Amino acid sequence: MLPDEIIAQLISEYQCRDQQIHNLAALYSSHLPSPPCLDVYGLTATGKSSILASFFQLSSISHTIINVRECITARHLLERIVAASVDALEEFHDEKLDRRSYARTENLSALCVHLGNLLEGRGKFVLVLDAVDKLREGGGTLIAALARLGETVPNLSLILSTTLPLTPSTLHSSSISFLHFPSYTRSQLLAILGANPPKIFLTPPSLETFPDYTPDLAAEDDAWLWNRFLTTVYDSLSKHTGRDLISFRSCAMKLWRPFVEPVVSGQFGTRDFSRLMVNRRHLFQLEDSVLDRILDPNTASTSSQTATSTASGLPEPATPSKQRQAKMTVHDLPYYTTHLLIAAYLASYNPSRTDVTYFMKHTDKRKNKRRAPSAASFSMSSKRTGSKVRKISRHLLTPSPFPLDRLFAIFRALLVDSVPQVADLYTQIATLTSMRLLVRAGGAGSNDALEMGGKWRVNFGWEYARALGRSVNLEVGEYLVGGVD
Amino acid sequence: MEHQRCYIYELPKTEERSPKRQRTNRYNAQAQLPERLQTYRELWAQQEERIQEQDTLEKADSAVQGKIVNFISASSSMPDERKSVIPTGLIVAGPSIASHGPFFERLGRSIKEDAGSAYVVLTSGECPNLKTLLKNLIKKATSRVDDDDEDDLDRPATSSKHGPKLLNYDLGHIQEWNKRNRVSSIVVALQDSEAFDAGLLVDMIDLFHSWLDRLPFVLLFGIATSAESFEDRLSGNSLRYLEGEKFDVTQSDDIIEKLFSATVASTHVRLRIGPNISRRMLDRQKDHVQNTQDFCDGLKYAYMSHFYASYPSLFLKEDIAFKDLSPDAFEAVRNLPSFRQWVEKKLEQGQAQEVRSLLNSNEYMFEQVMLHIKSSQQALSTLSHAAQVLSNTREALQMSPKVRLSSIWTRAASGELSNSPLLRETMLCIKKIPSDKLVLLLAAMQQLEGDYFSMDISLLQKEIDKLLQTNDTNAPLRTQHDVRNDNLRTTVVAQKVLLSKHKAALSEQDKAYSDLVGRFYDKLEAYFDSAFIDPRTLFLSEVLVYDLKSPHTEVFQPKPRFAIERALASPHDYLGCDCCTGVDGNEAALSATQPATAIVYQMYLESGTLINVSDLWSAFNAIAGDGDEENESKTMAIFQRALAELKYLGLVKPSRKKTDHITKIMWKGL
Ligand SMILES: Nc1ncnc2c1ncn2[C@@H]1O[C@H](COP(=O)(O)OP(=O)(O)OP(=O)(O)O)[C@@H](O)[C@H]1O
Ligand SMILES: [Mg+2]
């Protein structure tokens, strides 16, 4: 393909990247020399990988692209470079290479030797290392060394793609070219996504009832509504939450179906944008669409949502976090396991010196359950210190570690009947640890469960503890120092 | 010797028994052990079959498994337009971690069969980091034999003949394998996903996602807590790569219930566990662990103990003949409490002659035992069946609170059920039953009719059908006991309001219906009365029911900490020697004759968190030393060893807060 054709095709495929495509075409043409090393950088979803891939596929330059994300170790990367280069060269020159000599690439010098041998007497070869900054090990020196490969192997030109530009300090040299892929602006984002609108009607309205609603007309409506919709989504949600192309796209796609639902059901016409907006405004007030979830929240929670809204009478948009709190279902744990967890929570969040007040078995049961310190006690203390101390509610802090015996002591204090000292209690601690509800707090020997005097920490929050308590008729808040509002 | 990891210590066999045993050895507890073992095997095989054939476990989660398999085949048949997300199943398998393994194993079988996918289970133990995870994944998926983990030997030495080879953690292996096998999807199940490092999960998802265009991955996460908290652990980007459904696995208490009714409360069981053990086993499931396998193990152990410990259990052997038995067996039966009860009853009834022959003639005894094994078994089966009837009745009447069959059975087996509030309440409800519910109840009961429950339900059904046909109103028929047939009448007599109930005049149909319900009620009551006996009063109940608490609790609920604490705090309990009984009969007092560690431990119990070692030493010396300066160094050595032992047990550790102090880290009784 001629360079101009390539450019034209790429530009039509990737809008708003004209300059970068022109640059690439200028730098990498088959007969002009190319820079030994180029750093293509730009934030996520700016089209680096896709444009590089498309460009080299169209151009007739022998090349290979390696996704560094797939390389687990540095050695893995080196091996893959050699293997991929051999494959690419064989295919490009349509010949069989002697693979035996390239069997092992243990280190960088082996890589240099192999690449040198491979490319000797051949034309230009482009090696693209995509997302090279995502390499899991190897650190800066490996990248620096890779960047200099072009110096030792003359007909190799290397392209590294990164999120941030490689600094001269990591490269240990400044002789490297850069190509920036800037983030898209609002209008660019709207233009890119607006280019291929999804359908309003998944199944087109039957031709008998609407004979004049032709596919062309439908496509026009789709584009019209989609573009307006995109603007709204961007301004109300994506601007504040995720401005990159992928976040924006996923957010818009999540909202699209619910948004056009009244149109599909025939409540509004396709061009009734303002009325549709008013009707569907709650979609843009919720955060659901910008949160990534594994489970499709639409299918999972619609039933419960409608149930709550009808129950309370007003369809007030609950924030998802609130909704989540309500939904926080506690798995039915065995009776003592539940108490162990509650005890662990209390041990983590109560200072140990207050244990006597809270858990000593008094004759008067109510004495145990002290409420939050009253306002008077607060003002007193602040007067004494002379400054206003802002207290953070305890349950918002990180849990503090506690020894196992304290957990058991609180556990026994919580229960009315006595529990035999059976081994099952320890089994449960182990089970809870493997469920990561309890974790060993750091320190020496924290990996050894038998280490004496080891400390533990809870790994769940207040809501879960409260729900646990309610499942066994125990109000955890009453035992928590400082109380909870 | 050094090459072995552990050794079996066998007691040197002495020819003659210790004198103490010889004294009691007239009755040989080990008699006919092989026969008993064989009987046990027979009976347990039947139970095992029941557990398996019933397929209680598999049946219980076959619905979920079906859903998961459907999900997988649906996602693998998705159009190939570059799937952008990994299909993900969140399997909420509940907190009974021990049952996750078998669940995923069964799941794997059905996935391989039905969905035509490759299936790999990974556990957190075998995946400490990404590299090992991948190695394991590849090994399991491609069934590749891989002999060494060493980096240098990451590939076979022959590789130089073939050119570059993939490293053994390169997913390219799976790609090659997939080229040959062409599976529709590669299902990777993380059995205990909570225990995986969150960072590792993120890395793995990232990697799988970037391979998704070449390898059709499907992820399954086994979750013990809740899907929400699992989602919270993953960071935003990896959540974006996943999309799927949640599957709730049947909870283990439902499974236990099914197992219980199949193995204990069923009518075909020859040996039952008694109410005490069954209550213990059920309580343990409720309070501590939830593990179905544990339940089966408990049952099996009960069976083993029964046949091991009791000689008369031999009578459970199918078609046992008189000549197979030694006279000892009959002697053993004659010593059973239930035999005594039975005989005493016979004496009261003046059947002295029969009692005499029971005591004298083994042949006669054998006959009677065989007879009673049959009849008692029949009674026990009837009891179990009646429990089932009662449970189903309550279910059909939708009575609350819901009482599970296991607890009804346990109460019945301890003889508590006849005249219990539970039964009376149920019967009362039946008295007032309206016709629409009665129809349902009869239908439910009809399925239970059989050898152990015969009531001519179909006759009743016919009758009620006839009655209903003549009933032209839409309202169901009511009995005379139904409150809705009562009218409240208010009368003012001498300025006092009198409330009086009046039976509304019953219609003809209602009268006929009341009559019918009355008959039904009477029959049912008679049935329950005859069925809910106290099994312990049955002759030979010791043979047919195993209800000993002792070895069971020790085996399934050991108390290691308690045992150590007790041994140290009151060594006399274990040593049983005369010297340690304490001073002047006061057991709690410390004495020099106790082991040194025990002495130090008891002083340890009395002190606070920080213990001054030199104080401890002087206290110890006062008790264990003899006041002689010369022997002090010896006492010191003993003291130090005692302290070292406490440290070894994890009771104390050196303190950094104060010099010469140690910290107490274990409290007694926790
Ligand atoms: N100008 C554009 N026109 C159309 N689609 C685009 C454009 N830019 C990016 N995309 C789309 O955005 C998605 C993400 O692009 P790509 O993976 O190339 O980004 P990237 O810069 O490599 O991101 P990262 O740094 O995360 O690797 C792709 O699906 C791509 O098709
Ligand atoms: Mg990229």
Shape verdict of chain B = globular
- Mean of pLDDT of chain A: 81
- Please report which band the strand proportion of chain A falls in: under 5%, 5-15%, 15-25%, 25-35%, 35-45% or over 45%: 5-15%
Please name the two chains that share the biggest interface, counting residues whose Cβ lies under 8 Å from a Cβ on the partner chain: A-B, 62 and 72 residues
What is the C-level CATH assignment of the domain at 55-250 in chain B? Answer: Alpha Beta
- Secondary-structure element string of chain A: HHEHEHHEHHEHEHHHHHHHHHHHEHHEEH
Q: Structural class of the helix and strand makeup of chain A?
A: alpha/beta
As a whole number of angstroms, the C-alpha radius of gyration of chain A is: 32 Å
Q: Helix tally of chain A?
A: 22
Q: Find the count of extended strands of chain A (DSSP E, 2+ residues).
A: 8
CATH level 3 topology of the largest domain in chain A = Rossmann fold
Low-pLDDT stretches of chain A: 300-328, 367-386
Q: How far from one another are the termini of chain B?
A: 41 Å
Number of strands of chain B: 12
